[in-house]
Amino acid sequence: MTPLPLHDALVELAYPASLTLDQDGRRLALIGVGADPEVHLLDPTLPGGAATTWPLSAEPTLVRWSVGSAELWVVTLGEHGEPTRLSLLAPDGSTIATTQLAGAIEDLVPLGPGSALLRVADVGSERDGMHLGLRVRGTDPDDPEVRRGDALPLRRLVHVAVADGAVHHAAIDLGRWSAWDVHAVGERAVVVASQDPAPAGYYRPTLLLVDGLTSERATVRELYRTDGQLARPRLAPTGDRVAVIEGQSIVSGVVHVHDLPTGAWRTVADLDDATDVGWLDEDRLWFAGWEDLGVQVGRIAVPGPGEAATVTGRWTHLASMHGDAGQPALAVAPDGATAYTVWEEPGQPPEVVSLCLDEPGTTRLTDHNATLRKEAPEVLTERATWTSPDGTEVHGLVLRPAAASGPLPLVLLLHGGPTWLWSASFAPAESNQLALPLAAAGAVVLLPNPRGSSGRGQAYATQVRGDTGGADLADVLAGADHLVERGLADPDRTAVMGLSYGGYLSAQAAVTQPRFRAAVVMSGVSDWLGFVTTSAIGGGYDAVYHPAGDLGSAAGRDALVGPSPLYRVTSSAVPTLFLHGALDRITPLAQAEQLFGELARLGVPSELVVYPREGHELIEPEHRRDAAARVASWLRDHGVLDGTED
């Protein structure tokens, strides 16, 4: 196999995570940047100041400052690799109290001194794609494993409080509701929930209002149901207004505001693709989100009921911001003007920065990736625009070696979702971070955002519904033609590859577009019919993207078979490499095995590589390195990259 040296360096790239700011705005805690388990703290008001580290006994997954005190909540991995241990640390980093919970702690909302609300996935719960599509493990594996349809595991809300050196916890009874997102103020919480506890239920959400969090029995009321998806519910400081984002799948969308006393709903005018939102006070919100191939930041004015909620300031930049779910997110300071985030852009690896809500610009506060920043390869990143056959304007990014001139080998790298996107960054993270290494190795790499992508509003994002692998694939192919016409790409040395939905589009291209010399399918879908009943998101995701699909009718089954690569294979298909995690529950391994088997039966060069212990994306460093080397060898062996057959 052919190694990719730059990829080896990217495997060690540090991504600061879980930014949380104390109530005085003088201590910013974060994780994910040290070789050892630890929390990093810095004073963001002193750029360049030395960071403090608090060593931990296990890897942290989440940190949050307590409300009304200088104590820090920390969630760490337990014995079986799940985030099950909760600790409260004193202002000097010593442990005040700790406890172990069953399941997996997915979120924590501080309520008051020594008090917090947890969102916990039961043992056996299916995890979503952001959690690698793995089931939540318990203390001992079941032998045999037994699942009951009338006793499915939930995502529960648990109230925790520290007293006398111990953490006391009690589950809040939501009935059959499973909680996907939550925010709370005092005794009141607002929850994105579903009555289907699998990730499929996330695609059919209801917004709940829960009162009496610490009472003997909380009251639960439905606020809003939708065919879209919901994220980031946020209660105003007084608890009588709610803001929530509505979008598609991986939510990037519009902001709704609900006045609880009057029941009035408003949608913020002239704002789309928001991914994070929060209250500055009772009448103002801040927001962050995507904007085409970059990001946006700003404020929202929320006057009294009956008046329009409007954006009062916004700025954009060709860059990427990262929160805990990979979407743009902010930690906003008490002054209501300054915020902190993880920021990256071409030539600048991810670091913590400060920014102003009102004016463009960032100030870098950390330098965890200094070596890569100083030794970044000479790769150009540029914005590209082209027109699809039906006249739709499509945008994307092009990465190419600065010292080379075209025509160069072309690799189309397709993102997942489909409601996701490529945004300007140092090393685009999806698909095992292969975009930058492949460009450094001499290819021109196209990162297209076809219809269905985030960044250009809901009208663009919803165009793929009912037409997967159709017009969106045409958008991608038109991008390849555009680069050939510009003289940048060699039409006889092209490859297509992608992960998740990008893997599906790559499989679709492999079986229908002999123009390619090679394809790589990572965690892809080949059979939408089987997906309905075997995927953890089956029955929810497919209802959104294949609305005519129905297992109970011949026409409905045909609607799922039609866009499935498995049923379109011929001997003229493109040589295809499959990379898949053995434990992936979002796109189960059978999705790769079926298409690989059919290609092999027809004599099409193909290879299936299955990585043990891995889910929807590869995380073990050696697996990531192995996969990158196999991709490089596959592209060279099939005449795309230099050094192999003609």
UniProtKB/TrEMBL annotation:
Alphabetical UniProt keywords: Hydrolase
Residue ranges annotated for the Peptidase S9 prolyl oligopeptidase catalytic domain, each copy included: 437-637
Pfam family, one: Peptidase_S9
Protein name, UniProt field: Peptidase S9 prolyl oligopeptidase catalytic domain-containing protein
Top-rank taxon: Bacteria
Keyword Hydrolase: yes
